[in-house]
Structures are given as structure tokens and as C-alpha cells.
């Protein structure tokens, strides 16, 4: 197993650690004196996982360590970490949390993307994944919104990074739907 894949596995192993820290902090937040060390550790683990995502991608490209395992597990690790963070930070007892529409939007977009990929692959024969800057912006802005809550920054401003992330999540989902529709249309003409 090459270094890029080892970093991906490390990131996957960080997910349950992150989940535990978020849940334990949420439980402690119900008391008068929440355990702020747990909150800071959760932020640190999330930050390490986010940085390791960029690092393993750079290593895979720079040292030609691209593998089928990495192509499947790297985006899966990203989605699992992001979804765990968004769901937990929406439904646990943190002082700040995401509004209900945010996890619905993110999960809905991801489910539509997965379902659309299966439909396209079935009817068009081969799915062509086209990355778009809005998807990268959505991911980055979701990470920023998550860190905003984890670091407990200006609670009254929490809605702004969430709105920004929500806008780009919706926009990237619409672009994916249009691209999928085009692929289905072109397959129907072949």
C-alpha cells in the first residue's frame, strides 16, 4: 500500500475518533461546564483529516501513486467525514449548530448524485464524471462552516458560512443534474 493510500486509511480511522469527540462534547454541553478540551480536540481531528485529504491527493499526483483503491476510498472518506460532521453538528447539543435545512440539502444533493450516477451508468453505459469548480467550492465552504462551529466562532455570524456553503452545495448539485441529463440525452442519440 503506497503512502497516499495509507494517509487515506488514516483519515478513515480518524472519523470514529471525531464522531466520539463530537458526541462527548455535545453531552458535556448539556451541563453548566462543557468540556472545552473535547471541542478543541474535535476541531483538531477534523482539521487534521481535512489537511490529510489535500496532502494525500498531492502525493498521489506528484509521485504517481494513483490507484483504484485511492480513487474509491479517498472520496468516500471525504463524504463520510463531511456527512458525519454535518449531521452531528445539526442534532447534538452544541451551542452552535446547523439549521435543519443544511443537512437535508447536503444529504439530498449527495443522494441525487449517487442515484443519478447509477441511472446514467445503466442507461448511457458509462458515467463520465466532470469536476466543476462549484463542487470544490461547496466542499471547501462546508469545511469552513463545520470549523466555524467546531471552533465556536462568533455564534451570531454562524449563518453566513452556512448560507455560503448551502448556496454552492445547491449550485453544484444543479450543475451535476444538468451534466447528467446531457449524458443521458447524448446516449439516447447514439
From TrEMBL:
Pathway: Phospholipid metabolism; phosphatidylglycerol biosynthesis; phosphatidylglycerol from CDP-diacylglycerol: step 1/2. Its EC number is 2.7.8.5. It is found in: Membrane. It is an enzyme of class 2 (transferase). The keyword Glycosyltransferase does not apply. The chain crosses the membrane at residues 7-26, 38-55, 76-94, 157-178. GO terms for molecular function: CDP-diacylglycerol-glycerol-3-phosphate 3-phosphatidyltransferase activity. It is a multi-pass membrane protein. It catalyses: a CDP-1,2-diacyl-sn-glycerol + sn-glycerol 3-phosphate = a 1,2-diacyl-sn-glycero-3-phospho-(1'-sn-glycero-3'-phosphate) + CMP + H(+). InterPro entries: CDP-alcohol_PTase-I, CDP-OH_P_trans, CDP-OH_PTrfase_TM_dom, CDP_ALCOHOL_P_TRANSF_CS, Phosphatidylglycerol_P_synth. The keyword Lipid metabolism applies. It comes from the Bacteria. Keywords: Lipid biosynthesis, Lipid metabolism, Membrane, Phospholipid biosynthesis, Phospholipid metabolism, Transferase, Transmembrane, Transmembrane helix. Belongs to the CDP-alcohol phosphatidyltransferase class-I family. This is CDP-diacylglycerol--glycerol-3-phosphate 3-phosphatidyltransferase. It comes from Prosthecobacter fluviatilis.
